[in-house]
Write a structure and sequence with these properties.
Number of domains: 1
Structural class: alpha/beta
Radius of gyration: 16 Å
Shape: globular
Strand order of the largest sheet: 2-1-3-4-5-6
Strand content: 15-25%
CATH topology: Rossmann fold
Largest sheet: 6 strands, parallel
Distance between the termini: 26 Å
CATH superfamily: Alpha/Beta hydrolase fold, catalytic domain
């Protein structure tokens, strides 16, 4: 499938709007896969800092998906940063989409609750891109959830990175890497996943 036939609906996290530098940078990278459409949730549009309640977030995400579908792409992939990826998973329970790409899935809430129910209910293929130092998604906890998931899953771990998939300057120096090289590795994983899901693991895998 050519990129012109594929649409990526890109949802932001709770802390910054769709026009943030992080979202803008990743939008440019994702354009090699397909047309990228960003949107904001109602609270961000209203200039508020506290996210809307879950039903409002899901409704807004579904509305953005309906608008995206009006462009008649052959394939729609839900991509989200943090909260946007979690809401995308909820939307995929109700709407048929090709796949989900979670850039830093927030498995644990701020209170420490494990937000895995939506993942266990999914049937849509999921790519998790997770930082090894992300406190909101301990890899051991995610591995246990993936064992129980029915949906095909792939995990790409960004060693040493935080919730935003970034490494600190010292870590980059020690590993003789640049953030751009890290992001290139992430994109390679996303491309491999999207291109026919060639690297999808069995649901019980730990890779």
């Amino acid at each position: 499938m050519s990129p012109t036939q594929r649409l990526l609906l890109f949802a932001p996290g709770a802390g910054a709007p769709s026009g943030s530098p992080w979202m803008t940078s990743w939008t440019e990278r994702l354009k090699v896969i397909g047309q990228v459409v960003r949107f904001d949730y109602p609270y961000a549009i209203a200039g508020k800092r506290s996210p809307d309640r879950l039903p409002v977030l899901i409704a807004a995400h579904r509305a953005a998906l309906a608008d995206a579908r009006a462009q008649a792409p052959d394939s729609v992939i839900l991509v989200g940063k943090s909260m946007g990826s979690r809401i995308g998973c909820h939307v995929a329970l109700e709407e048929p989409v090709t796949a989900i790409v979670c850039l830093g899935y927030p498995l644990r809430s701020a209170r420490g609750d494990l937000r895995s129910d939506v993942l266990l209910a999914l049937r849509t293929p999921v790519l998790f891109v997770q930082g090894s130092r992300d406190p909101l998604c301990p890899l051991e906890a995610l591995g246990a959830v993936r064992q129980r998931m029915v949906a095909p899953t792939v995990l790409h771990v960004v060693e040493g990175s935080d919730h935003s998939l970034r490494l600190g300057a010292r870590a980059l120096r020690e590993r003789q890497l640049t953030q751009e090289a890290i992001d290139d590795g992430i994109m390679a994983a996303v491309v491999a996943f999207v291109s026919g899901h060639a690297t999808v693991d069995a649901p019980h895998a730990h890779s």
